[in-house]
Amino acid sequence: MYKFTSTKIIELGSCAFRQPRADSHCKYLHGYRLTAKFWFTAKELDQNNWVVDFGGLKELKKLLQDQFDHTTCISKDDPKLDAFRRLDEAGVCDLRVMDGVGIEKFAEWCHAAADNFVGVTTNMRCRCVAVEVFEHENNSAIYSSKPEENESTVSVEVEKPVSKVKAVKKEISASDTTRPPFSVKKQKDKQSRDLWPKKQKNQWMSGDSTWGF
User: In whole angstroms, what is the distance from residue 158 CA to residue 98 CA?
Assistant: First the structure.
């Protein structure tokens, strides 16, 4: 049983994609500033009493952002894939062809990349057990696995494929999740605004001029 868990939030970047078979406006090319939350677990801590060294995840962050930041992610079965390839060749977009697109598939891709990365760098002491990808503060999707119960192999097929890792999908309860990272920033912004007076007399000006927010 894995006793320790730590989490890390990584900005994936601004990514464009589409769902060609959707009956809604999602069939059109659109984009989001994607954010991912990673759950790492270990049976034993390292010499620093860490599940994972967050400072050692820079290469993982680079891999993730190379895939998603200012890129256009298109499914390998998109009927307009050839058109996107031509746009890529013309320098109009930075194309990434994936096994599927959408935050569910992005979460699966990120999970495979992260689990492979920490598994190799920690000699399998640490594993990535879940990834939650946010489109924005209201929409997210989670892909998760239990390393000790892996029975199948998930292969994430992309232009530059990540190594195969074992994974099995499962549900994560509400108690396993936290507020999205966006809400923390909003709360901090609100607290900052509350520090300012609503109205204050300008001592250095004559008359009754005031300033405030």
Answer: 4
Query: How many structural domains comprise the chain?
Result: 1
Is 122 among the domain residues? yes
DSSP-assigned beta bridge partners for residue 47: none
Q: Is residue 204 assigned to a domain? A: no
Secondary structure letter of residue 124 according to DSSP: T
Which CATH number belongs to the domain containing residue 48 in this structure? Answer: 3.30.479.10
Angle between helices 103-121 and 58-68 (to 10 degrees): 150
Is 195 among the domain residues?
no
pLDDT digits 0-9 by tens, 78-104: 999 999 999 999 999 999 999 999 999
CB–CB of 17/31 below 8 Å?
A: yes
Tell me, what's the pLDDT at 2?
A: 73
Q: Which domain holds residue 15?
A: 4-178
Strands 30-42 and 126-136 come out as antiparallel
**In the predicted model, what is the mean pLDDT of residues 167-186?**
49
Contact call for residues 25 and 84 (beta carbons, < 8 A): no
Check residue 175 and report its DSSP letter: G
Strand 4-17 versus strand 71-75 pairing type:
parallel
Provide the phi-psi class of 13: left if phi over 0, else alpha when psi is between -120 and 50, else beta.
left
Domain assignment present for residue 82? The answer is yes
| Mean pLDDT (whole number) for 179-193 | 55
